[in-house]
Write a sequence for this structure.
């Protein structure tokens, strides 16, 4: 479904950094508390502050640590609606991938997007203030995007798990 050149662009830049037990402990601490001071982090993993900071900076540079962020409760700020939207693209239109990616990057309602296998090309996580806001987004923007053939939406009734750790899935430390 995705042309070879587009697929290569999507998966470019993946590298695997060799992580030891200390790196994994640092990651667990940061995952638990991204606001921890370097001094406290170093103490918790039994390193000097300078050695700890060097390791953190290296993991940031290598893309192991992608960033730090504040997690906002959507409902507390009036964003009540969430849906997973499967999007299938028209096979007869060329170069739809780049224009679709540019479009979803500009839509604040799309909070996550994945390229997938199966009957659809993408799965979007869409947030909206209400069902009316979601409907307006789908009808007036998503369906009008270049190359979109069809969408299939599933309304999220409840979120049972979010932000699970990937550290336990990682290969054993060196």
């Amino acid at each position: 479904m995705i042309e070879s050149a587009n697929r290569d662009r999507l998966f470019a830049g993946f590298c695997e950094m060799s992580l030891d037990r200390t790196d994994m402990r640092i990651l667990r601490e940061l995952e638990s508390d991204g606001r921890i001071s370097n001094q406290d982090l170093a103490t918790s993993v039994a390193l000097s502050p300078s050695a700890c900071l060097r390791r953190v900076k290296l993991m940031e540079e290598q893309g192991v640590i992608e960033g730090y962020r504040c997690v906002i409760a959507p409902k507390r700020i009036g964003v009540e609606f969430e849906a997973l939207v499967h999007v299938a693209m028209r096979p007869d239109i060329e170069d739809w991938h780049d224009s679709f990616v540019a479009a979803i990057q500009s839509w604040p309602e799309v909070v996550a997007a994945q390229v997938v296998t199966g009957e659809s090309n993408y799965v979007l996580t869409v947030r909206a203030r209400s069902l009316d806001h979601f409907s307006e987004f789908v009808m007036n923007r998503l369906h009008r995007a270049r190359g979109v053939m069809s969408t299939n939406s599933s309304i999220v009734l409840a979120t049972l798990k979010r932000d699970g750790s990937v550290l336990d899935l990682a290969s054993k430390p060196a």
Notes: Residues 74-155 form a domain with the Alpha-Beta Plaits fold (CATH 3.30.70.920). The longest strand covers residues 81-89. DSSP finds six helices and four strands in the chain. The beta strands are 81-89, 110-115, 122-128, 148-155.
